[in-house]
Amino acid sequence: MKRRDFLRKSVGAGFVAGTALSFTGYNKLFATELPEADTPYDLVAVRGGEPEAMFDRAIEAMGGMGNWVKPNQSVLVKPNIGWDVIPERGANTNPGLVRRVIEKCYEAGASEVVVFDHTCDNWRRSYQNSGIEAAVNQAGGRLLPGNDESFFRDVKIPQGRQLKEAKVHELVLNTDVFINVPVLKHHGGAQITISLKNLMGIIWDRRWWHRNDLQQCIADFGTWRKPDLNIVDAYRVMMQNGPRGVSEDDIVMMRSLVISPDMVAADAASARLFGSEPHQIGHIRIAHEMGVGNMELENLSIHRIVV
Amino acid sequence: MQTRYLKPFRVIISLFFLVLSTLIFIDFRNSFSEGFISSFLFLQFAPSVVKVLQVAGLSALGFLVILLLTMLFGRVYCSTICPLGIFQDVVSWLSVKLRRKKWPYRYARPHTVLRYSLLGLTVVFMLFGSILLLNLLDPYSNFGRFVTYFAKPLALGLNNWVAPMLMSSGIYTLYPVTLPAIRWEVMLFPLVMLVLVLWLSLKYGRLYCNTVCPVGTLLGYLSRFSLLQIYIDEQACSKCGRCDRVCKSSCMSFREGSVDFSRCVACYNCLKICPDNAVKYSANHGRKISLLDKNTLPASKKKDVAAKPAVTSIVDDSKRSFILTSMLVFFGINRFAKAAVDDIPEPEQDTTIPEKKNFPVSPPGSLSLEHFNRACTACTLCVGVCPTHVLQPSLLDYGVGGFLQPHMDFHAGFCNFDCTSCGEVCPTGAILPLSVDDKHVTQIGVVKFERENCVVYTDNTSCGACSEHCPTRACDMVPYIGELTIPEVDESTCIGCGACEYICPTRPYRAIYVDGNPRHKTAERPRTEKVEREIDFEDFPF
């Protein structure tokens, strides 16, 4: 046990020193409210284009990546890389979008962009076959492993009702900016999976969530550390048999993208694209009630772009 | 003479085989391709024999190459290709260096009865359909287990110690790897063998190869008829005794001027050491030299023993195997006291209905428990290459006959849908290669759902972890109460990959699990309908 603790600590130190980061990330642990970026809209939605082009338009409308990424900051980009399937199956975040997001971070002056997911299938196969490994490498980011317990550290979730603590990957703790890049999908257990649900990929003990009221745990975790920006990939959308899918028959070419600093707003808008009412999705409704964000799209300033 | 250079040549080739064999078994990052592993192990004798017997595959004729080599040069397999043999040479060499013994060995009489009994028993067992003795004695498989159970943990420990340090220097070539814990009972037999092999090689050179190893005994018998043999040219010999004292097999008697070539492992130490060039390695051996007539006499006696090995010794050995079996059964009792691989918090309430598993699950491509149990020598190669670590060594899950053979342990991992690695590397044909497409419908077991253990039923909360992981929709979520959905299973499309069982959060009993198919079946492909939906890109539903 002692050796394991030692390892965990040294790995922690490793990521800190290795990515040449400051300890500023830790401050966010204790802040319940993040300083809001000065953005012209609460949410931007784009339809009808390719993932890269839609993201370019969306982030431009939001005032540019510089609103979130300051020079020399380190950035964590967290896509969904849960499954060992090819991009055409829509089970993982679109690799082209991931690449474009990383490029934009560097354009804004990021010192380092790291990417990981705690995958469901074998991580090396998932990284590779999702196309995200190649995308990250092309963009100059660093794809790191997320499937060893030694990377994860205990955090408290003071506002959680059911979930009071979790083990979180230290890259989340050690980076300055956290960009959540989920893919919109059907989900057999959580109904649909978008931004809130994508955060299950930064924690270790997922089984506990499933055992102890999944929808509540997802919402509880949303109170801990809100991503600075959420970029929802709704380009190829898995409408059934999610989250893994069976074949390309499950996919609809929705060619859409939603970005918002508010996870709940992003999920509410994406749920509508999917064809569901946000309040019918357990974790979105609970997260809204707990003040994680706002699912009442009528009360948000939304910018809509058709490409 | 040129034969002096045979020894360094042998050392170079053998180190190549030893190092690569070790790396292949240690490789916890799947660095070697399946094709490379499979071709590299082509020459391993026992696996190749088993494969030919079991599946009559022409791709497995490596053992014929070895037989041919043996007929030409003697037991070069033992000296250069067998990883356990070379490992013993390394141990012996270290032992000799440490003890500063210049002349470590001396001629000893052969253990003729024991060695031929063990070979005979191994063959008899195989004739009766049991691979157990070969499994226990085969040098390649024993070596594999040594590396997997003892060297690999050391390598992993080193990796997990160095990786964080490198990461802190911004070097990300290494990453920490955690493997499921191996039960201590599983390591017991390999440990006993390791101690035996170490002890024999530390003190007696290649005694293991000439008493215990059935491959050594078989090739030894054949090497009596080898084209090239080592012999002592009495005319040139000055009886200095050097050859006798460097012979790892203790098969050279300088006094009698004889060489028991059946025990010679072709190390060529004698060729190098002889100051008189009296040790020869040529086709011009034996029969012409009158002195060797003495030597042919005991050889013919040995033949008699070889002809009826089982009769003379079966009583003794069956006693031994009885004791061994009882020990195994005794330790088997502990198999449920398994090291926890899942480090998860205590569940709110324990499940009450035990899982009803009738059969263990053998890996995809192994056709049936019968085929698998008859062909697997438990070398652990598949355990090492399995990227999800679902393949774990068993103790007696398959019964005594399947001792140590790997099984699908769905508490350690689950079978990756698109992965076919184990079948591609298995050298004995116990796991046959599958195409990815065939793998998708190979049903190694079937899903069983115990609704009253399920979180959705007991707690009225969402879960769906099983369905989430199911690659074929054999486990689907159907409407339950309100927004809730509950699993519904379809055995016809289930392939038994175990993803549902692996991820199911209930304890101590899982609500969903896989029961093995004693004979693998073909599953139906998942039935899906194309989603039809018109998308108006100008319309925003908010």
Task: Characterize the structure shown.
The complex is a heterodimer of chains A (307) and B (542). In chain A, 35% of the residues lie in helices and 21% in strands. By secondary structure, chain A is α/β, with parallel strands linked by helices. Chain A is globular and about 40 Å long. In chain A, strand 5 and strand 6 form a beta hairpin. Chain A has a single domain, classed as Rossmann fold (3-Layer(aba) Sandwich), CATH 3.40.50.11440. The relative contact order of chain A is 0.18. In chain B, the strands form 5 sheets. In chain B, strands 1-4 form a two-stranded antiparallel sheet. Chain B has a two-stranded antiparallel sheet with strand order 2-3. Residues 288-347 of chain B have low confidence and may be disordered. Chain B has helices at 6-26, 34-40, 45-55, 62-73, 76-81, 83-99, 112-127, 132-137, 139-168, 184-204, 207-211, 214-223, 242-246, 269-273, 293-307, 309-332, 369-375, 381-385, 421-425, 436-439, 455-459, 465-469, 499-503; strands at residues 229-232, 252-253, 258-259, 279-282, 391-393, 406-408, 442-449, 475-479, 485-489, 512-522. Chain B has 2 domains: 2-307, no CATH class; 372-522, Alpha-Beta Plaits (2-Layer Sandwich), CATH 3.30.70.20.
Brief sketch in words of this structure:
The complex is a heterodimer of chains A (307) and B (542). Chain A is an alpha/beta fold.
Key attributes of the depicted protein:
heterodimer; A: 307 residues; alpha/beta; Rossmann fold; ten-stranded mixed β-sheet; two-stranded antiparallel ribbon; 12 strands; B: 542 residues; mainly alpha; Alpha-Beta Plaits; 2 domains; two-stranded antiparallel sheet; 23 helices; 9% strand
